[in-house]
Amino acid sequence: MRVRLSIRETRGEFVKRVEEISGQEILACNQCGKCSAGCPAAMAMDLLPSQVLRLVQLGLEEALTSETIWLCASCLTCLSRCPKGVDLPRIMEALRQLVLRKEGDRLELSALPADFLSEAPQLAIIAGSRKYLS
Amino acid sequence: MRKVGVFVCHCGNNIAGAVEVERVTEALRSYPGVAYSIDYLYVCSDPGQDLIKEAIAERDLDGVVVAACSPVMHETTFRRTVAAAGLNPYLCEVANIREQCSWVHRDDIERATLKATQIIETIVEKVRHDEPLLPLAMSLVRRALIIGGGIAGLQAASDIAAAGYGVILVEREEGVGGRMAQLSGTYLNFDSTVDLLREKIEAVTRNPHVTVLTRAQVEELGGYLGDFKVKVRRQGNDEEYEVGAIVVATGYELYPQEWLSEYGGERYPDVIDGLEFERMLSPTGPTGGEIRCPSDGRVPQEVVFVQCAGSRDPERGVAYCSKICCMYTAKQAMMYKMQVPQGQAYIFYIDIRALGKGYEEFTQRGMEEHRVLYLRGKVSKVFPQDGKMMVWGADTLSGKGVEVAADLVVLATPMVPSAGAFELARKLRVATDKHGFFSEAHPKLRPVESLTPGVYLAGACQAPKDIPEAVAQGSAAAAKVLSLFSQEKITHDPIVAVVDSELCAGCGICVEVCPYEAREIHPLTKIAVVKEVLCQGCGACLVACPNKASQLRNFTPTQVMAMIGALV
Ligand SMILES: Cc1cc2nc3c(=O)[nH]c(=O)nc-3n(C[C@H](O)[C@H](O)[C@H](O)COP(=O)(O)OP(=O)(O)OC[C@H]3O[C@@H](n4cnc5c(N)ncnc54)[C@H](O)[C@@H]3O)c2cc1C
Ligand code: SF4
Ligand code: SF4
């Protein structure tokens, strides 16, 4: 299906919010793909990290429905290698925040089973809280 | 009888590895006419050349054969060597025993040695009958003709005139400046072309050495390097000029929009090409520099730029990359955003070719500072819908087909040679490539010369170029002209055809076969004459002449027969 691009989206609220929350200039990315090439979680993603960013550049909110933003491990590999200094993990975080703020938290800490809590490393709990709670 | 010296080169192991050079040298010693014979490791080295000079002096040689590599390599070297020793250079010949012998017979030393001996013997026969020759002096008019008064032609004119030589600048339009005068600002700094040009135009028009002829065209060209005769038609009148060199700088025009039917083929007023957009951006243009939709004068809120519109399209457009449109499109999108900050500029592209100092940074600035949205894909179709121009394209980066309802569409159509370039090339006897651009003599080493001696090329008439490149080439062509003009005299190789007036019947066959127009039948004597400066020594007339009246200096029938005699 052909997607209509227009100023309402390319310069719309969605793009503005992503840029505000992440503090990144999304058009600084020239789509070289180096982030995707080195991403350790890419093999499990439905879209490559650079493709998610591309959707944002086009102003397309379907970026929010990608599994990729949840699979991003915030390991910062892409940031450390990006030739344009784009902080893609922050953009991933911004996209997650937009979803969480709209749809609510994705994690209920009190609902976690006790045996899981006793076994899971502390770091996983903290990271999970950061990622799934707004 | 002539006393010939033979110098057999080893060329390290190149020759000596397959040819027993000592045996060859020994065999030649007793050959008729040979007064001296010696072998040496590298005859082209300084000590090797000294050997030749000493032998000429001590043994009173009046002919030299150097048996070595191809004459293409060192004929000039060895002729210069014998000239330094006081011998006429045309009494020195090279026998090729490397490319034509040792390199191809590595596996049979016996036969290679015999063959080398025979090759040298034929050349000894030639030298025995060679006449001493003098280079032919040619006249040199120290004035240049420049065809086309764009930035490339202006640059060449101002450089040549600055050196004190006369320039005739022929421009077919009302004024000089070319396409650059139609542009708004230039990348990378949006400098006004009016300001940039003013200085250059003044440098040319104010210089007393320059004659600018506008609304003028070259009608006819005769003569040759150093002494061309040009007929210029100006405003209906013909004028004749004599010049020594010619710079072609006829520039370009844009590929016709009407051939791009998928983009509307010029049917829609709001689909324009790059030059039309430049006029719109220019303060001296029809809108006074304001960007407006041609259809109804509204300020466009969304503008789509279509790169490679007709270029990189061997199937239905031109196969080549127009090279400068990526850059001017980036510039135009930025200039649009400066004027309409709330608007959106989209650029459809296949690759972004920003190949110049600061160019990559410039296009990146367009994306980051001016939020120009680049979409990777070639536009498939442009058509009107609901008062807008609908653009169908793709963004291969996201894998999506996309469409934009644009107010204005700007096509980056490729540069093509300017109208009439082909006819002009024919008049100048200069080659063009398959697209009609003027052909350079060598793509790497002789980029500003044509294959026709005395005719040089500058600017976009040779291939798509931007202003800095056109200026550089204009200066380079001027440097070529100046190095010609600064010679005391110019000469021509004396190995040319001669006519034996006793044998010539005046049939005129040679006039027809000569590819260089170097022959004519003399109006009074009615026999053929050779225009020596035009003759390239190709030998076509020798073969054609039924009376054997046509001969080539130092390739006479006596010589050729003697050479064959040495072999059989
Ligand atoms: C839309 C657009 C934007 C551009 N923007 C830029 C930019 O920002 N920066 C940049 O560096 N470059 C830019 N360029 C490129 C620039 O226009 C060229 O590099 C430059 O004009 C080439 O100069 P030239 O002298 O070779 O040819 P031209 O400018 O074409 O000049 C050729 C001259 O020869 C004359 N002529 C042609 N045939 C004959 C004949 N038979 N007899 C006599 N006279 C003849 C013509 O009338 C003309 O005056 C742009 C080009 C386009 C299309
Ligand atoms: S590495 Fe940087 S510039 Fe390259 S695609 Fe990823 S975010 Fe964009
Ligand atoms: S310069 Fe750019 S726009 Fe022009 S033909 Fe080449 S790639 Fe296409």
Describe this structure in words.
The complex is a heterodimer of chains A (134) and B (568). Chain A has two domains: 7-103, Fumarate Reductase Iron-sulfur Protein, Chain B, domain 2 (Orthogonal Bundle), CATH 1.10.1060.10; 108-134, no CATH class. Chain A contains nine helices and one strand; from the N terminus they run βααααααααα. Chain A has helices at 7-10, 13-22, 34-38, 49-57, 68-71, 77-81, 88-103, 114-119, 122-132, and one strand at 2-5. Chain A starts with a strand and ends with a helix. The mean pLDDT of chain A is 95. In chain B, strands 10-7-6-14-25 form a five-stranded parallel sheet, with helices on one face. The radius of gyration of chain B is 32 Å and the shape is elongated. Chain B starts with a strand and ends with a helix. Classes of the chains: A mainly alpha (134), B alpha/beta (568). At the A-B interface, strand 1 and helix 4 of A face helix 10, strand 19 and strand 22 of B. One iron/sulfur cluster (SF4) is lined by residues 29-35, 50, 53, 78, 82-84, 86, 88 of chain A.
- Kindly name the structural category of chain B: alpha/beta
C-alpha geometry of chain B: elongated
Beta-strand residue percentage of chain A = under 5%
Q: End-to-end span of chain B in angstroms?
A: 23 Å
Instruction: Let me know the number of strands of chain A.
Output: 1
Using the coordinates above, name the CATH class of the largest domain in chain B: Alpha Beta
Q: Can you tell me the CATH superfamily of the largest domain in chain A?
A: Alpha-helical ferredoxin
Topology of this structure?
The complex is a heterodimer of chains A (134) and B (568).
Chain A: E1 2-5, H1 7-10, H2 13-22, H3 34-38, H4 49-57, H5 68-71, H6 77-81, H7 88-103, H8 114-119, H9 122-132
Chain B: E1 4-9, H1 21-29, E2 34-40, H2 46-59, E3 63-68, H3 71-84, E4 92-96, H4 98-102, H5 109-129, E5 136-138, E6 143-147, H6 151-162, E7 166-170, E8 185-186, E9 191-192, H7 193-205, E10 210-213, E11 216-224, E12 227-234, E13 237-243, E14 245-248, E15 252-254, E16 271-273, H8 274-281, E17 302-306, H9 325-339, E18 344-349, H10 359-368, E19 373-376, E20 381-385, E21 388-395, E22 400-406, E23 408-411, E24 415-417, H11 421-428, E25 455-457, H12 467-485, E26 490-492, E27 497-499, H13 509-513, E28 519-521, E29 528-530, H14 540-544, E30 550-552, H15 557-567
Parallel strand pairs in B: 1-2, 1-3, 3-4, 6-7, 6-14, 7-10, 14-25, 16-23, 17-18, 17-23, 18-19
Antiparallel strand pairs in B: 5-26, 8-9, 11-12, 12-13, 15-24, 20-21, 21-22, 27-30, 28-29
The complex binds flavin-adenine dinucleotide and iron/sulfur cluster (2 copies).
